[in-house]
């Protein structure tokens, strides 16, 4: 609870496990109750909270299989309909007086939508209603009282509709990095696009009492547009005060370092001599963060979450997103780039499919020719979660997981696999199964010219063990031969040199020769570090407020 006068927050326990709660929480003024649903794995949990007694009125568990809440609509009879999605579109009809919850599934049954319904689609994140309570859905009007589609006005262009006044409705769609605002004349069906909002989002727009469109962009710019003409009436940036957690570090040259912060599309550069930094703005058009980076020659390449976009950045040219960086490839069915490799010319990255879908897509990009090639689902029902290139053969060695992104779909495979992948065709040329119940396996780096270090967790265990496989022939050793990591290491970072790995235990960064199974030396002791990045002979660490460079510590 936020007090708008004092700025103070209060928090209240609901009895529900911690989880991400998305849009759509509803407040019932008659009972003073709040309702929201979430997905604390493995259950789906909804709660009704009485704000007057400050106690939970009721918890609901697994009423529907759908994972994510998107919107809520108050009905004429005082009940509230909550929209959920993935795998289907579900509607939870909440009666705050009787404290009951009645589910209905409508995506496949009524709307004819292909399941699982993904967040890559729009239409249910903001909704409008008719005077009699029907909800506008993708492709029709849904009447919660009748649990059926009913006739109603249809637009010439479908948007995500977020407000209605009389015979007009306002909608939004996102194209590239910007949002478009349209007005639908419900009498004629005509849709007029009236405004474009730079860095706008589907969630960040609303209609004022005066009929203006008020928006807040991804980067905190508040704007007001005339709701009829689209004329911009007001614009003001808000200060940015948060320090973003670092996802990626990549050296531009000996003096400059590039970094990408969590859950934003921006990137920054740091002068390693002066310590001065500068925000460079967008690195990708989608709403997600950069998760993989490469330096090829003088160019830096970045792959970003939400659309599996690859962008190219020339640090020596003026910065203007769209031109520099510019999007050079996009995996058509991809969402989150989670594994990367390169051969000095070609970039390889694996992306998960969108939420609710198993598997993923593998991409190769030629930095000389600009050609991009994609292979969808090279290992059906498995996602490639790690990649290591064998320099002798050029073959890609892949580790996989049986899980969908964020556990958003139940797995079908019983075990993870290792795979050898041809770098030209992106075809799988050999597979090797892990023991039953091993859900994920990671390839980390070369132990020597012929062997690769792998990490996997056995069923019932809490920490991974390590083993090696031949890069030329994948044969997984018996699990009894797998070994615990030295020093009970929490993280293992490849150095790019066969056999040499940085093992991290409670902030202690130690260089190991795992081929000889011996510690070589302690590189750093930083208990607050959460990211270790190795490049050339240097070790970079990120803490909550610092980037720390240990220069030359990896020199043999």
Automatic annotation (TrEMBL):
Source species, domain of life: Bacteria
Protein name: Uncharacterized protein
Organism: Candidatus Avipropionibacterium avicola
């Amino acid at each position: 609870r936020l007090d708008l006068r004092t700025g103070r927050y209060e928090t209240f326990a609901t009895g529900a496990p911690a989880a991400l709660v998305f849009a759509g929480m509803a407040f019932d003024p008659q009972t003073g109750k709040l309702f929201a649903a979430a997905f604390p794995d493995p259950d789906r949990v909804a709660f009704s909270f009485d704000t007057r007694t400050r106690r939970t009125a009721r918890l609901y568990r697994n009423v529907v299989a759908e994972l994510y809440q998107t919107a809520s609509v108050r009905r004429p009879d005082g009940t509230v309909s909550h929209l959920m999605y993935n795998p289907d579109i579900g509607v939870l009809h909440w009666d705050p007086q009787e404290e009951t919850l009645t589910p209905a599934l409508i995506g496949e049954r009524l709307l004819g939508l292909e399941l699982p319904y993904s967040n890559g689609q729009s239409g249910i994140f903001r909704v409008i209603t008719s005077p009699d309570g029907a909800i506008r859905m993708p492709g029709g009007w849904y009447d919660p009282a009748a649990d059926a589609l009913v006739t109603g006005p249809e637009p010439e262009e479908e948007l995500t509709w977020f407000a209605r006044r009389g015979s007009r409705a306002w909608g939004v769609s996102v194209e590239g990095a910007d949002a478009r605002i349209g007005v639908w004349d419900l009498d004629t069906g005509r849709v007029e696009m009236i405004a474009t909002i730079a860095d706008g989002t589907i969630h960040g727009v609303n209609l004022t009492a005066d009929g203006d469109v008020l928006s807040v962009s991804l980067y905190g710019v508040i704007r007001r547009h005339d709701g009829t003409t689209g004329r911009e009436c007001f614009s003001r940036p808000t200060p940015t005060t948060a320090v973003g957690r670092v996802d990626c570090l990549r050296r531009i040259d000996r003096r400059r370092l590039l970094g990408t912060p969590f859950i934003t599309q921006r990137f920054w550069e740091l002068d390693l001599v002066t310590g001065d930094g500068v925000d460079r703005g967008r690195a990708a058009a989608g709403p997600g963060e950069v998760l993989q980076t490469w330096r090829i020659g003088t160019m830096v390449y970045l792959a970003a979450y939400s659309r599996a976009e690859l962008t190219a950045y020339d640090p020596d040219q003026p910065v203007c997103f769209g031109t520099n960086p510019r999007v050079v490839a996009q995996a058509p069915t991809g969402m989150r780039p989670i594994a990367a490799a390169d051969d000095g010319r070609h970039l390889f990255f694996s992306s998960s499919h969108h939420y609710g879908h198993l598997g993923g897509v593998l991409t190769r990009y030629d930095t000389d020719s600009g050609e991009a090639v994609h292979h969808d689902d090279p290992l059906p029902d498995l996602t490639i979660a790690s990649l290591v290139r064998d320099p002798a053969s050029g073959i890609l060695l892949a580790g996989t997981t049986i899980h969908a992104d964020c556990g958003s779909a139940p797995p079908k495979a019983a075990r993870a696999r290792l795979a050898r992948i041809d770098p030209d065709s992106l075809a799988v040329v050999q597979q090797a199964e892990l023991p039953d119940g091993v859900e994920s396996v990671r390839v980390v780096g070369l132990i020597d010219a012929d062997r690769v270090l792998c990490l996997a967790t056995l069923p019932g265990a809490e920490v991974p063990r390590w083993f090696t496989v031949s890069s030329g022939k994948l044969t997984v050793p018996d699990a009894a031969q797998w070994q615990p990591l030295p020093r009970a290491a929490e993280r293992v970072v490849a150095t790019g040199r066969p056999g040499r790995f940085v093992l991290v235990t409670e902030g202690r960064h130690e260089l190991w020769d795992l081929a000889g199974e011996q510690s070589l030396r302690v590189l750093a002791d930083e208990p607050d570090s959460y990211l270790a990045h190795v490049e050339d002979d240097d070790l970079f660490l990120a803490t909550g407020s610092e980037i720390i460079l240990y220069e030359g510590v990896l020199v043999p």
